[in-house]
Amino acid sequence: MSIQARGGYEYFITFTDDYSRFGYVYLMRHKSDAFDMFKAFKAEVENQLEKHIKILRSDRGGEYLSGEFQQYLIDNGIVSQFSAPGTPQQNGVAERRNRTLLDMVRSMLSYSTLPISFWGYALQTAIYILNDVPSKSVPKTPHELWTGRKPSLQHLRIFGCPAHVLKGKIEKMESRSETCIFVGYPKETKGYYFYSPSDLNVFVSTNAKFLEKDYMNDFVPRSRIVLNEIGRVRTQPERYIGLGESVENLPDDDDPYTYKEAMEDVDSHHWQKAMQSEIESMFDNKVWSLVDLPKGIKPIGCKWVYKRKRGMDGKVETFKARLVAKGYTQKEGIDYEETFSPVAMLKSIRILLSIAASLDLEIWQMDVKTAFLNGSLYESIYMMQPEGFIEKGLSG
């Protein structure tokens, strides 16, 4: 980290179970501590939950490639899997989880106005919350799937909120409570972590009155929140478990990233149908015509984007395959002039809903399949044929 957490920690490592999405986070002073953290994690899940790790999926960080680490996995019958170089999406569950964690940490610290050195407490609180709340990726909360018990949310508090904490031993004329700041949930005991601005210490207490609507801004050493994290891993007790870092625009599932992966996926027949449906929409809307590539013209590429659409219960409802042109290879003013996508403003939608409610009107909603194909394109664009649907003898 650019700023050390309290306790001298500079890195963190997370493990996320692919089946339940339950996560663990460990703070580390050195990158080389990853091996020890994995052993601690393995011991905890085996002794406390009787779960056994079968597969460990990670990136190609040096801490996972060490001979000692790999030999330990072999000795314990754990299969080691690495994501291919430059393809973090192969470890998508871990990647997405850590991106979410870092977003939460930044928001929590920004709201609380605590010193940036409290990122460790914020991170542990974030994983605690994610484990206890529903996820669209699984049918129940991660906590229930992982432990078999439904979590209680009654004790959750706003990170960084002030609280009047009852003191232990006090002198006769002293105040019976101290105004502190809530900074998390201790793992080893029931209670809450509180930060005392008066002596700069963090302690555990169960006797407190939370002032969640109040702010404490009197001690705010603000600086830019820059969080870095160590590589990414996933393992499998009954499926997988993972560790990762924040990466933009990653899927929150193990959706195929390439055409080859889709055809090798267990749901390859579903992806084939989804692609066929997309191609049929292209032809129905007369999106393109197959021609020979003119001399001097460099065609742009295209790729398939795959996504499993899930319902509220976490089950897959549809398989979507979108064919997208690699428009980033085009240059504004040469290949195109401007872009525009009409989208209704939220306040406009609210006005319409208010009118409908006041007049007791019925509201109908419709969705236009592949709506973007109905737009008019005035430029001539040459694109390569999509994988899986190439007609030989024509180049574009």
UniProtKB/TrEMBL annotation:
Gene3D superfamilies (UniProt xref): Ribonuclease H-like superfamily/Ribonuclease H (3.30.420.10)
Source taxon at top rank: Eukaryota
Residues annotated as domain Integrase catalytic: 1-150
Protein name: Integrase catalytic domain-containing protein
GO molecular-function terms, A-Z: hydrolase activity; metal ion binding; nucleic acid binding
Pfam family, one: SH3_retrovirus
PANTHER family: RNA-DIRECTED DNA POLYMERASE (PTHR42648:SF27), TRANSPOSASE, PUTATIVE-RELATED (PTHR42648)
Keywords, alphabetical: Hydrolase, Metal-binding
PROSITE patterns: INTEGRASE (PS50994)
Entry keyword annotation includes Manganese: no
InterPro entries recorded: Integrase_cat-core, Retrotran_Ty1/copia-like, RNaseH-like_sf, RNaseH_sf, RVT_2, SH3_retrovirus
Keyword Hydrolase included in the entry's annotation: yes
Endpoints of the signal sequence: none
Protein's GO biological process: DNA integration
